[in-house]
TrEMBL record:
Residues 1-24 are annotated as: Disordered. Signal peptide: none annotated. This is Zinc-binding dehydrogenase. Residues 11-322 form the Enoyl reductase (ER) domain.
Length: 325
């Protein structure tokens, strides 16, 4: 089969397909035919050789994908020909991932699908949807009628979170640093779009004097305490991303959390996204009730380098999706 297998750090332009052995099923894992996959920041980091210790060369990158089951293990809960999504579970890091025609996937990293949507649309979803859904429902326990702040709203997870929160019946406040992206955030369901200059809380309180009920922090620890200030008494903040580079708090003390407010986090796996929820989202997309933030679609493994370069440039809004079907 053809795959992009790295033997060491390289430039995006060096991502070229090569011939490698096709995997075979084994206990706990099935072989899938990859139809499409999204390109992620973590894969750019791995390609540069800057990943954590769970990543080692040589490696086929790709932490997510959408596929058709090609060959099953004796203990498989899936059938040949079944549509599935795959994500996390060590894919593209501890084990070979989706940048290939075929992939050996742990059953625990697979979600059954049933859709007639095109592969590009479905391929944009797995990791983005899992993070957004988990952050809103596991992290924030968001309910209809509540107000929620999505800080980092123009990111792919931010845009999907806006759309899901709107679909859940929440009033959505979303942020961007770029005024040119305001209309995009409103198109995905944001009621209020705020320009993030680092001091967001005063803007929120002008619109909602008591503050928002809940907030999803995607920018990082650099803005976390300003986000807390935008949340009402008894409110909750979920930390799920570090777009601004802040992942740690030096000399952290629990007393840093404002009295009466809650801090949680979300960093989940495929098991946190129920198949029913994934398929409900697919149906909502098919019914034109939910938009998918796609920046650009690429065709063939030969275009993976261009997809990573465009992602790395920061000039695009939405997911970069490579289709192999």
């Amino acid at each position: 089969m053809q795959a992009i297998k790295l033997t060491g750090p390289c430039a995006a332009s060096d991502l070229k397909p090569t011939e490698v052995p096709t995997p075979k099923p084994k206990a706990g894992c099935d072989v899938v035919q990859v139809k499409a996959f999204g390109v992620n920041e973590s894969e750019v980091t791995s390609r540069k050789g800057e990943s954590d210790g769970d990543f080692q060369y040589p490696r086929i990158l790709g932490i997510e994908g959408v596929d058709v089951v090609s060959a099953t293990a004796p203990d498989s809960p899936y059938a040949v020909g079944q549509q599935v999504a795959m994500m996390m579970g060590g894919l593209g890091r501890a084990i070979d991932g989706a940048y290939a025609q075929y992939c050996l996937v742990p059953h625990t990293a697979m979600i059954p699908l049933d859709t007639k949507l095109d592969w590009a649309t479905v391929g944009a979803l797995p990791e983005m949807l899992q993070t957004s859904y988990g952050s809103l429902h596991t992290g924030l326990a968001l309910q209809a009628g509540e107000s929620v702040l999505i800080r980092g709203g123009s990111s792919t997870v931010g845009l999907m979170s806006i759309a899901l929160a709107k679909m859940a019946g929440a009033t959505v406040f979303a942020t961007t640093r770029n005024p040119a992206k305001v209309d995009k955030l409103k198109a995905f369901g944001a009621t209020h779009v705020l320009i993030d200059d680092g001091q967001l809380a005063p803007q929120v309180h002008k619109l909602l004097p008591d503050g928002v009920d809940k907030a999803l922090e995607l920018v990082g620890t650099t803005t976390l305490f300003d986000t807390f200030a935008a949340v009402t008494a008894g409110g909750r903040v979920c930390f799920a991303g570090g777009l601004g580079g802040g992942w740690d708090i030096a000399h952290f003390s629990p007393f840093m959390i404002p009295s009466g407010k809650s801090l949680t986090s979300y960093a989940g796996e495929a098991k946190d996204l129920p198949a029913q929820a994934f398929n409900e989202v697919l149906q909502a997309i098919a019914d034109n009730q939910l938009k998918v933030p796609i920046a650009q679609v690429y065709h063939g493994l030969e275009q993976v380098g261009a997809a990573q370069a465009n992602l790395e440039s920061g000039h695009f809004v939405g997911k970069h999706v490579v289709v192999l079907a």
